[in-house]
Amino acid sequence: MLSADVRFEGFTTTDWTRVLSLFVPRRASGEPRSPERPRGGVVAAHRGGRLIKLVHTEVGRLRLDDAMADWPLPAEELARRHHASWALALEAGTLEQIMESFGARSRRGDDITAQAIHLALCVREETLAGHIDLWPARLRGVPIPSPGMVKSSLDSVCAVGKTLIVGLFEDGELWTSIALHRGPRGFDLVLGPDEVRGDMGLLAGDWRRDYRHLSRAVEHRAGPPALGCFAEVSTLRKLEVDPNPGAWARAVAVRDVILSPVPAALAIPLGVDAGWAALSALKSIAERVDPIGIVAPSIQALRDLTTGERDVKSVFGFHPLELLRRVLSREQ
């Protein structure tokens, strides 16, 4: 998805740290994770039914004696015995086989998306053959899309020449943002907040109004937006691990998350009816021509009638937001 000549601009160290902090695992309850929780992981290598190496990522090499007596052990039991948060049991030679299969699948001209999919398919084959045992298997049952599916999905959300924008606010200020401009050969510009803060002008301290300034500043620097997602950082953190069905749709409905603009294709995985997306666009136009708010209540009433839920699994085979929750959510 990234072009060969992609540019990263407008990120300070703080900006990058904030972006990465959004993907730190956390508990859905919002409570701090226990300091006594298992940490690190255990990797076990075996050959012909014999354990040949056992390593903990926090403490280094482990004694083979205890594990050898009960071998073979499932990865979950390995993690429990060594107080680890994850475990991987790997048959010797598996990595070499993965690379051989990857080389056989790859073709000259494959982009990074196609290569990543090929690699994922090779790993899945070895897992199904019993050569890899990973615990916890948070992505079990998630189908691997084809490169064509990835491209068509991306085309429906962000056309060439358009920009994806995510803006997060805290205490009335822009906390961080990221914008991706799509060129003919993939995303060729990743733009951070340091480049646009000066163009946003004087903020009102209300992110539900100030997001428009961010959108205009990004449009000036990168190109017209295809999708904009704006929220307070605390709201996004909660939604990332919220297990309740329709949490994102409710957040959009009560404007805890603002999507502007929103393609109809994205309305489906959010559980929002495509008709709502059209009404959202109509509401945006009405706000420009009707600042007093005469027609807004009528549009709101129509939106309430057309908001609904859809089974996104019937479209993609999995729910994208559920996938995000699986990766980030932790119980301990």
Describe this structure in words.
It is a single chain. This protein is α/β, with parallel strands linked by helices and 332 residues long. The chain has a domain of 178 residues. The protein has 14 helices and 13 strands. The longest helix is centred in the middle third of the chain and has 17 residues. About 8% of the residues have low confidence.
The first-to-last residue Cα distance is 34 Å
Radius of gyration: 23 Å
Helix and strand composition category:
alpha/beta
pLDDT < 50 stretches: 273-277, 293-312
N to C succession of SSEs: EHEEEEHHEHHEHEEEHEHHEHHHHHE
Strand order of the biggest β-sheet: 1-10-9-8-11-12
Keywords:
six-stranded mixed sheet; about 325 residues; alpha/beta; globular
